[in-house]
């Protein structure tokens, strides 16, 4: 088990990282061109009215004061008012987050069994034809950009074969299965892109575990191959795969921006993209902050799970 000191250190490090992320997100919003009052009132508004609105919103305050007000409100879930929608930001972010979470869920449902399964098959058949085919396919799919594979899949399976809808936005009132069906085609580009890397990492773990002393010892004890694989190879080989999945979540968030725009999904990526286009600073800062927080928390969760499963990680963490 992790010691109390290790947990305290990791928690403090996580909180500091999240605070640092909030600072960077806020400062990034400050350097973008544009005046809040001018954006809200329009280019022909009176200068005095613009100055009065900036004073009312606190936009004329020093940066540190603005950051403290923004950060303290964000802790309570209040991200301010959208400049383009003229409404509180939080409901838009929550709705977009739900749509992105649904897409990410479909991606993981397809990615984990395919990627891990392919890696296990390749590792157990190291050097054989099936191993080479899996590695080659993974490398080939991995170098194709998301928007290229997305467009190809859209044309083939959406327009030509008509197996899937060409949009990822299900009709209003659609049920669980119908909504999931609409998200399969948008999920495939990221699944193809990530499967190769996940399979290679899993394969490397299986190959290393097969060559380890504990595997040879288990074999010498008389266990058959299936027992050795299930009891000794897979538990050790799949531990690094958990960390890989966690780190790939960051790439997945970046890919969602492209995929959501391509398939018309009003998710978090599309929200950030539209906020940047319209210079909607409160919406942009909230969207980026939520995405960065998800990335940091998922990476920390993967690190924690790996530490719980791997004794070597626990020993290093306690040093």
List keywords for this structure.
319 residues; mainly alpha; 79% helix
Please provide a brief summary of the model.
The chain is an all-alpha fold and 319 residues long. Helices cover 79% and strands 0% of the residues. It is built from 14 helices and no strands.
Backbone CA Rg: 24 Å
Low-confidence stretches: none
Number of helices: 14
Distance between the termini: 14 Å
Number of strands: 0
Q: Residue share in helices? A: over 70%
Chain-averaged pLDDT:
82
**Main sheet: strands, sense, barrel:** none
Assess the beta-strand content as a share of residues: under 5%
Shape type:
globular
Q: What letter string, H or E per element, gives the SSE order?
A: HHHHHHHHHHHHHH
User: Structural class of the secondary elements?
Assistant: mainly alpha
Give the topology:
Blueprint: H1 4-31, H2 36-41, H3 47-57, H4 63-75, H5 89-124, H6 129-142, H7 146-160, H8 176-210, H9 213-220, H10 225-237, H11 239-263, H12 268-277, H13 281-309, H14 311-318
